[in-house]
User: Fold these one by one.
Assistant:
Number 1:
Amino acid sequence: MSHSFQFKQFTIQQDLCAMKVGTDGVLLGAWSNVKEGNILDIGSGTGLIAILLAQRTKSALITAIDINQNAYLQTLQNVNECKWKERILVFHSSVQDFKSETKYDLIISNPPYFIDSTKAPQHERNTARHTDELSFLDLITAVKRLLKKDGLFVLILPTEEAQLFIKEAQEKELYLNRKCLVKPNSNKAVKRILMEFSLYNPELKEEELTIETEKRHQYTKEYIILTQDYYLNF
C-alpha cells in the first residue's frame, strides 16, 4: 500500500491512518450537495473529504474532526500541504465532545459501520471501521445538535447498515431526502448507499450509480463524470 495518493489538485499522505484512501470517501465528497457556508467533516481520517470539499467550494469554511490521534495528525499534515489550508480547521475530538457555537450548513461523514462483525487486530482500524466509539444514535444526536435548520447531512454506508441508519434517523426526526444506490459493476448487487438527510421531510429522490463496466478498471461514464475533477486518470 502506497503511503500517498495523488489527486489532480492535492496529494493525500496516508502512512499514519488505519483506513486508507478509498472509493467511499471520493464518492461521498463528489456526490454531496456542497454549500458555501460552514461544513463539518466528522471522522476526517486522512482529511480527504475535507480537502475535496474545499476544492469544490470557493469560500466554505470547513472543520474536520477525528477522535484518533494519528488520524488527526494525518488530516493536519494533508491540510497544511494543500492549497486551501486557510479554509480548513482541524480538531482532535470525538463528535460527542465537540463543542461549537457554529451551526453547520453541511455535515458530512464516512462513519464506522461494522456493528456485529469480526474485529480487526489493531485498535485504530477497529475505531475507524466499527461503531463501538461512534454509534449511529450518537452520530444522529450530534448531527441534530450541530446542523442548521436548513442544513444537509450526508454519509455513505453499506446497504444493510444504511437501512438501519435510515430507520434510526427517521425515529429521531432526521429525514432522508436523497439516496444513491452504488453498484461495483453491472453484474453485482448494490454494495453502498449514499444518503442525504435534513430536518424536514421532502419527497425522496432516488438515484443509482455503477462504478465499473463488466471489465475491471473500465469505468462507467457516470462515474467518470462524477469524479473527473479529482482522479488523475480521468
Note: Residues 117-131 have pLDDT under 50 and may be disordered.
Number 2:
Amino acid sequence: MTKEVEKQNEEQRKLQVTGGSTFILSLPKEWAIRNELKRGSSMVVREEDDGSLCVAPSKFVKKEKQDEAFIKASVNDNPDAIMRTAISAYLDGYNILHIKAPSQKVLSAKVRNHLKNFARHYLVGTEIVIDTPTELTLQVLLNYPELTVQNALSRMSIIASSMHKEALSALKKLDYTAAKSVIETDREVNRFGLYIVRLLKLAVSNPRIVKEIGLNSQRDCLGYRLIAKAVERTADHATKIAENTMCLKECVNGQFSEKISELSGLAISMFENAMDALFRRDFNLAENVIERISQVHKLEKETVLSMQNVKTEDAVHLRLAIESVRRTAEYASDISEVVLNLNVESVLG
C-alpha cells in the first residue's frame, strides 16, 4: 500500500470524555454501515506491541485453528509421503497428529515404525501417546517458553560447530568412526531446525506469541528463518566433510593438514562470532566477520596448492572438503549480514 493510499484511508478524530472518566472515540459511519454494525454490536479491542489499538467487529476475529490434525494412511501409501504430511502439520502448528488407516484398517508395521522413528529423532517435544494397529497419535508437549527460538538456535549452532571440528579432526587422522559419528549427529541439527520453523510460522500468523518464543517483533521472523537455514547448511557441510573423509584411502600430508586446519580455524571462528553477534545484537562484531571473508578465499587457494603428491581419487574428495570449509565461512558471512539488518538501528544517528 502506497503512502498516498494510506493517507486516503486515514481520518483524524478527536478523543472525547464522558462521565468524567471514560474516553470515547467515534467510528466512521460509512465503515460501521458497511460492516452492518449497530447499537450494541460487539467489538474487539486489542493493544499491539507498538502501543497502537486494533478495533474490529467480533465477527472479524478469526477462530482459533483446530489443534488436531487427522492424516489418512492407506496400506499402499509411501511411508515417506505420510511422513511429509505429518511434518507439514507439525510445522503448521498442530499439537496433536492422528495418523489413521481408513475404515479402521490396520496400519502396516513399516509405516508405524517409520513414523515413530522419525518423530523420536526429528520432532522436538513430540511424544507418541497412542500406538495401536489402527492408529498412531503424536502429541507436542513442549510449551513455547520452555524452548525459545534463540535457545533452539543456540543449541543448533553449538552442535554444528562441534560437528565441523570433529569432521576436520577425522579428516586429518583418517578416523572413519569419528566421521560416521558426525554424519549421524546431523539429524540433531535438523530436528531443531524444524522446531524453529514451527515457532516462526506460528509467530507470523499469531503476533500474540512473538514474545513467548523469544523474539522482539514479527519483523524478526524472516531474519531468524534465514539464520536457522544457514546453520542447517553449515551442519550439512560438516557432514559432507565427514562423508568425503569416509572415501579417503590415505592420510593427508603434513602441509595439507596444516593449511586446512588454518582454513577451518578461520571458518569456524567466523561462524561462532556470527552467532555471538546475533545473540549479543552486536553490529560491529557482525561487520568484522564479513570483512574476514577475503582471508578465507586467500587461504582456500593456498590449501588447494598444498595438495601435492595426492592420488587423483583422494584429491577429488579433499577438494570437496576444502569447498565445504569455505562454504562454512560464507554461511557465517550470510548470518552476519542478517545480524546487520536486524540491528541497523543501533548504529543510525
Note: The chain has a mean pLDDT of 89.
